[in-house]
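Ticket #4471: structure output looks truncated?

Reporter: J.K.
Steps to reproduce: submitted the chain below (143 residues) through the standard prediction queue, then opened the result file.
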Amino acid sequence: MSTDFIIESIDLAKNLFRKNYRDFITEKQITVTVEDEDFKLFSFEKMISLTNIDGMEVSEARALRAYATTLNDVMGPTSYDQKGKKWNMAMLSASITIGKNSEGDLLFVDRHDGKTLYIFRHDDGGLFKTKMTLYKLIKAYSE
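Returned output as attached by the reporter:
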């Protein structure tokens, strides 16, 4: 697994996304509802801010890298979502976190297709595939 845990600048964070998401997220602080849960989307400034997960210092957008490292040690190299889709820890590690709910669960973009949104349950490492995509999210919350 990659050890690239820190995003050094806002410009590097912006480069992780297509123009439509970059334009969408810079407008204002946005709270979205996905699967009946409210998530605060990260600004680019928040994406690069540092947090400590399992003793590893990471950028918020790279939080899944730290969780995947721990899960790999505990559960092995593979996990599954609620529908049985196989997740390799390296793919989870490469996924980008875009928001967090009040319980600390993470909203992230599926690295497999670059558009489907998933929820990562930080307390048990569970993965939940949502019906939402990045495009639908932007459309639903744009004015």
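Triage note (M.O.): checked the attachment and the full token line is present. The longest helix spans residues 63-75.
Status: closed, working as intended.
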